[in-house]
Amino acid sequence: MRSLIAALALAVLPAGSALAQDGEEQSTPAFIDLAWADLLPEGEAERINQLMQIQSLQQGMDHFGADRMPQIQTFEVVDELDGERVRIGGYVLPFDFTGSREISRFLLVPYVGACIHVPPPPPNQLVFVTTEEPIQVQGLWDPVYVEGTMRTQRHDNELGDTAYTLELIEMTPYRS
Asked: pTM of the prediction?
């Protein structure tokens, strides 16, 4: 009977949950490990692709120009991520970079070179990250993991508007 109950419980537990076995404590992950695609609601990737095609046909694309390229303005989010402790990998794009290499706010971007001279990623593919205590960044081209509390909160700024914000708990080098 106990194994039947355990099997039924496993069938209804959310992904990543663990069931206590004979005196073991239940183990839950410290964070939800996200990929960038996890930030898109169902059908949003296709919508973004269509909007990017329309934009490139209307305005062309100048990868080497000095003009700012417009950002596709889609702020659709995955509401279930609001308030969750998450970890996601990406690259740091700081707002203010001092000689000591300390920052307290930055954009986490999905790829190197995500900037305003090529169409920046849409807002739901950028994360505005803040920390109360400034952190030191070693290399801007080095991938990192950020871990913290995710909010489905819009943040408009000069580098690229975002549909998500993250209250940083920890930043570590990316390891595959």
From this structure: 0.72
* CATH architecture entry for 31-173: Beta Barrel (2.40)
What phi and psi values does residue 113 have, to the nearest 5 degrees? Answer: 90, 5
Cβ-proximal residues to 45 (8 Å cutoff; 6+ apart), any chain: 37
User: Over its length of 176 residues, how does the chain's per-residue pLDDT go in tens digits?
Assistant: 233 223 323 333 333 333 334 445 556 679 999 999 999 999 887 877 777 777 666 665 555 554 556 777 788 899 999 999 999 999 999 987 767 788 999 999 998 877 655 678 899 999 999 999 999 887 778 899 999 999 999 998 878 899 999 999 999 998 87
- Residue ranges matching CATH 2.40.50.870 in the chain: 31-173
Query: Which residue's structure tokens are 């940083």?
Result: 168
